[in-house]
Amino acid sequence: MWFQVDRDHPAGRALADRHYSRQTPGAKDFLPPGRTLVLMTPIGDAVWGVVENLDPAGALRWRCTIFRNESSLLSSDMVRAATARTYRYWRHHYGALPDAPLTTEVDPARVRHKRDPGRCFLRAGWRVVATLASGLVRFEAPPEELPS
What we know:
By secondary structure, the protein is an alpha+beta fold. It has helices at residues 10-17, 75-94, 119-123; strands at residues 3-5, 35-40, 46-54, 60-69, 102-106, 127-131, 137-140. The chain has a domain at 3-101.
């Protein structure tokens, strides 16, 4: 269901421009600097982007910075498959997973399922680890590779 593309893929950029977290719509790159992986569906109706970089305080972080699904596929299945693909890619390409866990943040005010924001991540095996002062909910992927 996923294949790898460049971080400036036009269809990925278009999906990113429609995502609530997009900070600079229209910008060529839709991921922050760092080690990245971008996955898309063959017809370009879903995108998954992960980056390993440093947070503003200088700590290592490994984050899913975008997941947008405009396809008819179940988002939880897509998250599960993308998580597994991300783990395999990092092990193969970089030799090991980062020391930081794979995380993502969801804004409860900006998603459809307000009662259980991040529902697709939860159903894919991720867990809530924090609610940030900004109101974002932080999720963490399971430490082991998920079945795809």
